[in-house]
From TrEMBL:
Pfam families: Prok-JAB
A GO biological process held by the record: proteolysis
Domain of life: Archaea
Every MPN domain range: 10-137
Organism of this sequence: Haloplanus rubicundus
Protein name: Peptidase
SUPFAM superfamilies reported in the protein's UniProt record: JAB1/MPN domain (SSF102712)
Matches recorded under CDD domains: MPN_like
Keywords: Hydrolase, Metal-binding, Metalloprotease, Protease, Zinc
Any one GO molecular function term: zinc ion binding
SMART domains membership: JAB_MPN (SM00232)
Gene3D superfamilies: Cytidine Deaminase, domain 2 (3.40.140.10)
Length: 145
């Protein structure tokens, strides 16, 4: 995994960190645990600034260990984001039982080059990666709170 450019980061607006962690904890508290997912909204940078999240159902066949954003719900979420005048910054999902690093499945399914893929691991880990054509580049996660 490559290092990010010194100007590249993911900045979370007030309340976004809590929204991500709360959603991830909901998935972790299920029986069995399940990965959750959604869209990150805000302003593309660098640095990218996330001002809101949009939850999207996980329709993966094995939600305990993988995620798949519901395609129709994802496009509807992106449309809502853009209708508000914001940008789709990227996507988020959780790893309820593992570290917040891209799994082999995450790497194989990443397709949105230049976008952020944020991984949340309860109780309080949030890490971000920009997907580029040859893999993921980790970004610092900052809070504007």
């Amino acid at each position: 995994m490559a290092a990010a450019d010194s100007d590249d980061a993911l900045v979370l607006a007030p309340g976004v960190r809590d929204a991500l962690l709360d959603h991830a904890r909901e998935g972790a508290d299920r029986d069995p645990p399940a990965e959750i997912c959604g869209v990150l909204a805000g302003e593309r940078g660098p640095p990218d600034r996330v001002t809101a999240t949009r939850r999207v159902p996980n329709v993966a066949a094995h939600p305990r260990t993988e995620y798949e954003l519901d395609p129709a719900a994802t496009m509807a979420a992106i449309d809502r984001v853009e209708d508000r005048g914001d940008d789709a910054i990227g996507f988020y999902h959780s790893h309820p039982e593992s570290e917040a690093v891209p799994s082999a499945t995450d790497r194989a399914r990443a397709t949105w080059s230049g976008y952020v893929y944020c991984i949340v691991s309860p109780p309080d880990s949030i890490r971000a990666y920009r997907y580029v054509d040859d893999g993921f580049v980790e970004l610092p996660v900052e809070s504007s709170e």
